[in-house]
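Section 3.1: Structural characterization of target chains.
Under the original work plan, the team committed to producing a structural model for every single-chain target entering the pipeline before any wet-lab resources were allocated. The record below documents one such target. The sequence was received from the expression subgroup and is listed exactly as submitted; it comprises 504 residues.
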Amino acid sequence: MPSPQQTPANTSVPHDRRPVVCPTREDEVAAAGSEVIGGPVGRRARLGIDVLTPVRVVALVAIGVFALGMVQKLPCYNWAWFRGAASQYTHACYSDIPHLFVARGFSDGLIPYFDRIPGDMQYLEYPVLTGLFMQVAAWLTPGFGDLQQREQMYWMVNAGMLLVCTAVIAVCVARTHRRRPWDALLVALAPAFALTATINWDLLAIALTAAAMLMWSRGRALAFGVLLGLATAAKLYPFLLLGPLLVLCWRAGKWREFAVALLGTAGAWLVVNLPVMVLAPEGWKRFYVFSQERSVDFGSFWLILSQRFGLDVRIETVNTAASVLMLLACAGIAALALAAPRRPRFAQLAFLVVAAFILTNKVYSPQYVLWLIPLAALARPRWRSFLVWQACEVAYFLGIWMYLVYVTTEHKQGLPQDGYHLAIALHLAGTLYLCAMVVRDVLRPGRDSVRLDGSDDPSGGVLDGAEDVFTVGRAARAGREARVEQRGGPAGAATAARRAEGAV
């Protein structure tokens, strides 16, 4: 007898009353991996009644894996950060945090955006909320000891604050899909998450974005907008989520909710930025000027074009070309959203648009994978494809440090340029592979693991179960017919799903 969450008739049960989905029952890779801890969950297992609820387990696992990532940085913490560049690259434990403590004036008590920094940078090149995060960490760092000890303590304080962000991310992802909290283990156990979590301050923006998506899944458009605005004040990429939301609300006719979310985003971003914008305009705009002036850098396909093929990649040319490619990608995602046989889930389009931004950008830093991990867990909670992608990212993580060893050592030890280009191609291909899997799920909604139990869009908030009011293409018309037939019961739903997929 099939389990309740696998029974088509279960679609008539309200979402809040359906049982929690167990990955070991629907994912063969998760089932195989569970043998380490006793095997898949049995049919008679009692779920969700113990002290260790799924959300708490996910949070504890995330904290534990984050701690392992801190241990991985131990050689740098003890000595490699302070004995030349090559040592920190050899041990693959580099972090911006201790270096910028000195280079951006925090060790000297300078206030970001207001005090000029000695050197070419002039002002802190981070968005305002991230700058505040860095400054709070500096205030919490003890002022005694020599400079090396203060750098170590600054990194440790930041690591503690980023650990809080990690717990927030894990909890928010676990609660976004009410019936699928275990999908957040993809975030908690992601090896690239542990390896890159303390390279920079990205986790602040990611935590705010994850909280925003949780609020949207609960139908709280204003709270979503406020949190997304705060996330955008910490890092630029979160505002991209408004694009998928616009297209989905357009298809579902939810203009009021989108307007509330947009106003909340703009208002929260302005409240954070306006004081610095007015009182320290030169410092405030440094991030935006630096983003435009930054040359082609590590991890991007632009670097391969420059180094391997000798193409002219002037900053202005790359900025224009990257913008055009991003706009084309967004147009393709919008067309996909409006013409799909069934309205895509919010998390699917959010993942695609952020991935497009990273892939077309002139820099793809190792920690940028953090932006995608929570979105990937919500967009396609399948362990095989997720682990393939993570393997590519771990390979790149090792590749970039070995390449930096090669270019910073006299005897050219490490990974030569050709090998580094292969590492770049591998991690770009891994991201493209996961994008392709998400697109396939959108075009074939009957194979989307989140929708196997009859769910529509658990992270969609007001979009969940909403009727379409605007669609394009034959596939979308087939989708409308499918929803009509689904009202006829499980048999009609299966026939409708096949018809909708056949129209693609």
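The chain has a mean pLDDT of 88.
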